[in-house]
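FORM 7B: Structural annotation worksheet

SECTION A. Query
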Amino acid sequence: MTVNTAAAPQVAPTTDHFGARLARAVADRGPLCVGVDPHPGLLDAWGLTRDVAGVERFARTVVEALADRVAVLKPQSAFFEQYGSRGVAVLEHVIADARAAGALVLNDVKRGDIGSTVEAYAAAYLDPASPLCGDAMTASPYLGFGSLAPLIDTAVANGNGVFVLGLTSNPEGPQVQHAVAADGRTVAQTVLDSVAAANAGCVPEADGAPYGPVGVVVGATVGETGHDLSRVGGPFLAPGLGAQGAGAEDLRAVFGDARRAVLPSVSREVLRAGPKHSALRSAASRAADDFAAVLA
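SECTION B. Predicted structure
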C-alpha cells in the first residue's frame, strides 16, 4: 500500500462553543467516544502489517466505519508518532476525515509543559491553522494547573476543549492523585477545583452549552473515591471501560449525579470487532445503547 502523504484537507474553523458541539453530538449520536488506537496487537488481529501502511489501513477503516455515526473519535497520537513523519501524516488525515464526516475529534496526546513549549502544543492541537487541530485534546496538569493556561486560552479562543487528567484508571495514578496537599485537599481535588474555576464564566448562555470547555479525565475503574465531582462545570471523559474491566453500571457508582456530563470512552471493546465495517458499527451501537441507559 502506498501511504498518502499529501496534505490533509482542511476543516473549516469553528467558533461554536465546544460544550455545545459535544452536547449536540451526544444527543444526536449517543454517548460514546471510540479510540483510534492502532495497537500492534490489534494490527495483528486484523491481519495487518506492523508498519505505517498497516496503521493507515487500520485507522482509515475505523474512520470509514464510525465517523458518520459516533459522537467522538479519539486517536491515540503515540501509535502514529512511533512511525515518524509518515505516521503523523496518517494522523493528520484521520483528524480531517473524521471531522469532515461529522465526528468530533479528541486528540489523545496528554501534553503538559511550561512557557513557550506549552504554547506550541496549544498551536499544534487547538489552533485551526494546524493540520493536527481537532476539537479537543487531553492534557496533564502535573507541572501545575496554571501551566495549562495557554492550552485553555487557545481552546476557548477557537471554540475547542481540553480534557485534563484528574483521576485516571491506571493503577499507578493514586500515588500522585490521592496525595494530600498542604491545604488538606488531595492533588486530584485541586485539579477538579481548578477545572471548575477555569470553566466559570466560559459558557455563554446564548451558545446553549450545558458545560464549559475544560473537562476532566476520570477513569471508570476508580470506584467511589470520595472526591467531589459535582462542581466541575465541564464534561468528564471516562476511559477504563470494556477491556480494562469497568462496565456501564460502574459509571453510576463513580459519577453519581454528575453522570449526565460523562462521555464514556472505549477502544479495544469496539476495535477488536473489526475489520469489517458492519461489525465495528454493531459493536459501537451496542456500547452507546448500554451507556445511554445508565447515563439518562
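SECTION C. Observations
The chain has twelve helices and eight strands. The chain has a mean pLDDT of 93.

SECTION D. Sign-off
Analyst initials: ____
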